Amino acid sequence: MSRSSIKAFAPATVANVSCGFDVLGFAVENPGDEVEIELTTKPGIEITSILGDKGKLPTDPKLNSASVSIQSYFDYIGYNDGIKMILNKKMPISSGMGSSAASSVAGVFAINEILNNPLNKKDLLKFALQGEKIACGSAHADNAAASLLGGFILVRSYDPLDIVSLEYPKDLIVIVIHPQLKIDTKAARKLISSNIKLNSAVSQLGNIAGLISGLSQKDYNLISRSLIDVIAEPKRSKLITGYQEIKKTAIDFGAIGCGISGSGPSIYALSTNLKKAENIAFEMKNKFKSFDIDSNYYVSKINDTGAKIINK
Amino acid sequence: MSRSSIKAFAPATVANVSCGFDVLGFAVENPGDEVEIELTTKPGIEITSILGDKGKLPTDPKLNSASVSIQSYFDYIGYNDGIKMILNKKMPISSGMGSSAASSVAGVFAINEILNNPLNKKDLLKFALQGEKIACGSAHADNAAASLLGGFILVRSYDPLDIVSLEYPKDLIVIVIHPQLKIDTKAARKLISSNIKLNSAVSQLGNIAGLISGLSQKDYNLISRSLIDVIAEPKRSKLITGYQEIKKTAIDFGAIGCGISGSGPSIYALSTNLKKAENIAFEMKNKFKSFDIDSNYYVSKINDTGAKIINK
After folding, report:
1. Residues of B in contact with A25 (CB under 8 A)
2. CB under 8 Å to A238, separation ≥6 — which residues?
3. What DSSP assignment string belongs to A150-179?
């Protein structure tokens, strides 16, 4: 590509984080998606190629989450020229790791950068959410905000959109394991009924408050006690073969918490020690294997950077 | 009374704190209740007198929240002698300020102290909750834990009971205003249906997480944005004449947040400045007056001590 091209990376993310249904998310170091953009004078967005998606993603710019996000950005800033775009999916699709959010975020981050940052990073979120809406049917911000900004984020409010960067212990290690199971985000969402018991809400309120306090005070025991989900996990875990056993394995081998990543099938676990985390991940993979399920795992610190340019 | 007598004070409390339905509470400096205990050799609890209750509270030790709490403590430690007890209600009953919790806490704190503290302070909570159960029909711990321990507390879990002391800015000033309106706690609780919309739960999760983060990071703007209650306030506020106008007055005069204290009718507001807080309280009282409702207000820092002995 010419000098007028740029490549951005946006990381995978763990949303919900047990007690934080639809409001909490954090980014991991890897995997993630790359979007390469070249400015052209021909109006419109042309998706030149999509790599790593095994042909699963739409190349129609009106349907692809990255291009939809970029188009909504163009509409906002009034950009009338065009781009060519390459999307390199370096993470699994429909994995519960925020795949569509990573593509959307990489897209809007790249275009904003190549146009010399007319908007600041935080303001890009609303455009990335347009891509989320196309891919998932609803614009949930927990994945996209974490992928864009990095760190551990809270969606305090959707209307108005209010994203808060939370304090968290920098030595926290994340394991995300992705089993070869397919769960559709929309189907997983339908499992959660639109009404819940007040008792469940109170329980979840206590736990999310405990988690935020624990993260802030670096109280690992409190974090561990608080990583309980009574809203989504009881229903969605049934879609993940061996879920209870995998979770038990993670805890038995020293994870301070474990839960479904987003709407699954990926599972996240937290540890305070890299070596221990590698071992937990290995044992979780072994446990999946005992159910005849292949899996890939990723172990890293929480990614404090979020979207970034990886070449200019 | 002889040397074998003791007097304890336990403070009034604000429970729920807008987004923390059934899980958050904090203590104020005043008002509060006093319980005076004298050890006797005649088995059983004798309530010698109750002051300041206008004859409203039961003197039957099986029905009074302070004596019920003390009896459950006796049952636990195996104490077989008796006591004489004076309960001095120095705060309004059925006010939404944790009146029964203050009596229960003062009672168990006094008896534990006069018996040379066989149990530590935190362990007294479960006995105080027995008094809450008698008075309110259910053992909600947010008032009692805050009254006992002081500070800003979280009931992370009811089963097992898990109380977390939260970080909060020490310069936070609390206004509590008690209008001459009667609300029955049990009736106020019945207004809240046992099922809530998932959307409401998500909204409340976002706000409680924002509040805990704001308290911890001393971010007053975030605290202010987070003090929203979509579960109880929309229903319970209808029982408080002029509620919306009083709340608007508090905010207009600079309160960073305002909501129902417990199940009402008292209303709390937060400020970062004592002089401003006094003015907010004065204007809230004036606004109640415009509805022909008398009220009393209390302005103080958050009480970081909780229950204490006031003479030996």
Report:
1. none
2. none
3. -SEEEEEEETTEEEEEEP--TT-EEEEEEE
**Least CB–CB distance from B155: residue in A158, A192, A206:** A206
In degrees rounded to 5, what are phi and psi of residue B151? 75, -160
Per the CB < 8 Å rule, is A225 touching B162? yes
The DSSP line for B144-199 is HHHHHH-SEEEEEEETTEEEEEEP--TT-EEEEEEES----HHHHHHTS-SEEEHH
Residues A230, A206 contacting (CB under 8 angstroms): no
The reply to whether residue B205 touches residue A210, judged by beta carbons under 8 angstroms, is no
Region class of A45: left (phi > 0), else alpha (psi between -120 and 50), else beta: beta
Which residue, among A131, A53, A57, has the nearest Cα to A91 in the 3D structure? A53
- Inter-chain CB pairs, A–B, below 8 Å: 144
- Extract the tokens encoding A120: 């600041």
> What chain A residue is nearest to B203 in terms of C-alpha separation?
A157
DSSP state of A193: -
For the residues of A21-76, what is the DSSP string, one character each? TTTEEEEEEEEEEEEEEEEESSSEEEEEEEESSTT-S--STTT-HHHHHHHHHHHH
> DSSP letters along B13-72, please?
EEESTTT-TTTEEEEEEEEEEEEEEEEESSSEEEEEEEESSTT-S--STTT-HHHHHHHH
On whether the pTM is more than 0.90, the answer is yes
Tokens of A298: 């990723």
The DSSP 8-state label assigned to residue A302 in this structure reads B
Sketch out chain B's domains with CATH numbers: 5-167 (3.30.230.10), 173-301 (3.30.70.890)
Q: How many helices (H) and strands (E) does chain B have?
A: 10, 12
**A216–B217 C-beta distance less than 8 A:** yes
User: Residue with structure tokens 């971010």?
Assistant: B219
Q: Give the other-Cβ count within 10 Å of A283's Cβ.
A: 17
Instruction: Compute the distance between CA of residue B204 and CA of residue B228 in angstroms, rounded to an integer.
Output: 8
**Annotated active-site residue in A185, A233, A245, A305:** A185
Read off the tokens for B57. Answer: 């509270």
pLDDT digits (tens, 9 = 90+) for A30-87: 999 999 999 998 999 999 999 988 888 888 889 999 999 999 999 999 998 999 999 9
Instruction: Supply the ipTM of this predicted assembly.
Output: 0.95
Contact call for residues A100 and A111 (beta carbons, < 8 A): no
pLDDT digits (tens, 9 = 90+) for B115-163: 999 999 999 999 999 988 887 777 789 999 999 999 999 999 999 999 9
Max distance between CA atoms of chain A, in angstroms, equals 59
Q: Would you say the C-alpha torsion A92, A97, A103, A109 has a positive or negative sign?
A: negative
- Which of B249, B192, B149 is CA-nearest to residue A202? B192
Judge whether B40 and B83 are in contact, CB under 8 Å: yes
With contact defined as beta carbons under 8 Å apart, do B214 and B220 qualify? Answer: yes
Find, among B296, B280, B52, the residue nearest to B181 by Cα.
Answer: B296
Beta-carbon count within 10 A of A141 CB: 25
Residue A78, Cβ neighbours under 10 Å: how many?
Answer: 6
Neighbour tally for A130: CB within 10 Å: 21
